[in-house]
Amino acid sequence: MRNLLLVLLMIVIGVVLHQFLPWWSIWCAGLLVGLISPKEGAIRAFAIGILGGALLWGGYALWLNLQNEGVMANRMGELFGGLSPVTLLLLTALFGGLFGGLGSLCAYLGKMLFHRNLTADSLK
Q1: In principle, which of 25, 31, 57, 100 could form an S-S bond with 17, CB 3.0–4.6 Å?
Q2: What residues contact 66, with CB distance under 8 A and at least 6 apart?
Q3: What is the model's pTM?
Q4: Phi and psi (nearest 5°) for 25?
């Protein structure tokens, strides 16, 4: 339940930051969520960031695609060698998840760097 709340918090922070900052603001949202995430492991922090970033960017790309009936995705797919609109939406979600996950992982590992009792078990 706590992980779901962290994912939703990352989506909300990402939406707010995207109003004022460029595309890399999803990294900042992951960074903020990674700083407040509990000390349960780097993989879990990365997974929360991936899920939040992928849902935000993939959902927004899907919403934009539905708004213009797929015209923009078809034209962009033609520019990239005939990719389908679904492939472009999945790639957008993948990159959003990757940026969000790296931001969250960076914050988690930075937080663990200054923690006194750093053990190998806390990085799993």
Answers
A1: 25
A2: none
A3: 0.83
A4: -65, -20
